[in-house]
Amino acid sequence: xxxxxxxxxxxxxxxxxxxxxxxxxxxxxxxxxxxxxxxxxxxxxxxxxxxxxxxxxxxxxxxxxxxxxxxxxxxxxxxxxxxxxxxxxxxxxxxxxxxxxxxxxxxxxxxxxxxxxxxxxxxxxxxxxxxxxxxxxxxxxxxxxxxxxxxxxxxxxxxxxxxxxxxxxxxxxxxxxxx
Length: 179
What we know:
- The structure is a single chain.
- With about 180 residues, this protein is an alpha+beta fold.
- Helix 1 packs across helix 3.
- It contains 6 helices and 8 strands; from the N terminus they run ββαααβββαβαββα.
- It is globular.
- Strand 7 (about 150-155) and strand 8 form a beta hairpin.
- The strands form 2 sheets. Strands 1-2-3-4-5 form a 5-stranded antiparallel β-sheet, sandwiched between helices.
- The mean pLDDT is about 95.
């Protein structure tokens, strides 16, 4: 499946293309950005190539995945979307943004749209999110989108926290946002 293009107030979410590799390599090469990813270190450029390929393949296999997040200024600033986690048999909402775009609500904006896509278009019943316990910014995104803490989990050689939102929880949060 080719990813649909989704526009929000500040962002455009679109499918990744091979031309995004260089920009993604810049983002994942930043130690601050990668601090809260398993391994806690920047990823090399080859990882950007693999990741873009993996993202494109996931859309083709599952009919959903991560989008390239493009700011209104035209710059690709990271990724956001939903992705099946084989190790857990669950779908996770995942987001990663260039640090120059942190603390502006963009991760929450993109995560909200991703959750809506997962529930309304894909028909998922439940979506999780994972974060390092001390990644307060990521946990706030989860909470702002209506997700609730579920448990501590060990995966990818990391101790993480897992949050969850169900389709019914999302509908309630959506109703509250509309008021």
